[in-house]
């Protein structure tokens, strides 16, 4: 479980995070939802340690991360896997080497054969068992995301962070990436935090959703509760998507809840 | 300027704390030696051979006094090459080639979040990416300078012989006159200092690039400019201190 307590962050006097307190639950896909410029990515970067919050604390399974000793922060960081918005694959390495890299760096006790087995397992898990020899420049955006996921889970991470995993992908590939993140989260019981503004992701994988608005947490709940949330900013955000409006129409007609309204039904409307 | 220098010192400090394992550092340094050293041999060879040749021809053009022996041309080529041209011109050439490559490479890694990916994994990105580049430059620059010295002198020999400015015997006699071995040591000290300046300044500029492709280009240009200025200032200081 990751606990964020009163995290604040400013840039040149502009307060981007205004005291956010929230919890990311273990074994669930926790979504950080919000429009552009609401502080989602800044909060994510504070949590993984790429930025230092001005105020507040972040705790990983009871161990304080912010302002702790370097060794303790390093130990926590080594349990973190992250999928970046642009995948951030090392472009001088092949797909195989990218996935092997954290194993080589973080687990020097592993033999070459053990590393090979682990890399092959991870690539197979994301459906890229034949792409190991390719360079990142030779694969598609969706494949890059999958390699990013394979690299993140290779060292048996406890926490998986995904920064807008669907950006730049077509809807079908987006759904596949969402499903993969959801499956991996439940399969390994890890704590996953996904930054998104995509309502498809909310419907697909939103076990626990935190809605940010202008640097504040306005709402949290799950995908079944989100449509009935009585927060005007959240309602405006959700129903700005025509797909969700269509799904809501199906929902009203069938009374089956948002989850019952499949994407196909929504598209047909 | 003072703030930038302070940030530069903090950057160097961050690189030296929490270093990666020795095996990783060694492997990365060898990789960088190929990029910085082996891949620069051609340009250094061409530049130094022609500089030696041109120096010889131009000194011969200026030495018209019949009382000055022609072997002086060989002597002057040697002194100019070893003391100044080989270490300084080679380092300036490498500032353009290696410096821009380092700044551009690190800048691209920064804007494509590859540096952040290393940090999230718990790897000290400065130590992993920058320290091997600096070590490799400090190993390779002296070797390239030795190569440049040899090729400049050979270039002068060929130019002098082919143009008839002086005979081969006179040139070799001049080369061997009043040789001071310390000059070689001085040139190598300069090359190590220049290597540190070029690689560290270029890494600093590239590592902290923010923005997009335009900023990466700007970082490369600034890295080369600053490296060349640093080389010239250090050249003067070292000459004043060590000669």
TrEMBL record, chain A:
SMART domains in the record: AAA
One Pfam entry name: ABC_tran
Domain of life assignment: Bacteria
Keyword match Cell membrane: no
Domain ABC transporter, residue spans: 2-239
One term of GO molecular function: ATP binding
Database matches in InterPro entries: AAA+_ATPase, ABC_transporter-like_ATP-bd, ABC_transporter-like_CS, P-loop_NTPase
Keywords: ATP-binding, Nucleotide-binding, Transport
Protein name: ATP-binding cassette domain-containing protein
UniProt source species: Hymenobacter rigui
Species lineage: Bacteria, Pseudomonadati, Bacteroidota, Cytophagia, Cytophagales
From TrEMBL, chain B:
Keywords tagged on the record: Membrane, Transmembrane, Transmembrane helix
Bilayer-spanning residue ranges: 34-61, 134-159, 180-204, 224-242
MF terms in GO: phospholipid transporter activity
GO cellular component: ATP-binding cassette (ABC) transporter complex
Superkingdom of this protein's organism: Bacteria
Protein name (record): ABC transporter permease
Source species of the chain: Hymenobacter rigui
